Amino acid sequence: MPDTIKLKATTTLKHQPNLGEEVEEIQFEAGQPFAVLKEWETSYLAKDDDGKLFNVKKELAEES
User: Fold this and answer.
1) What angle do CA 42, 43, 45 make, to 5 degrees?
2) What integer pLDDT is reported at residue 18 of this predicted model?
3) What's domain 4-63's architecture?
4) Is the pTM of this model over 0.85?
């Protein structure tokens, strides 16, 4: 499992602050780094610099 990943292209990811709260869509530029917390077969659980969690599909990410 990589420690960090970067986005290959500008991408919009969905973030839900807490269960029951509205899902927020946030756009990130290509090259945005994320810390990897968990790896699944097709995606990563990753955290941005603000501490927000995202499910990032592996096809959108490159290991850094």
Assistant:
1) 155
2) 80
3) Roll (2.30)
4) yes
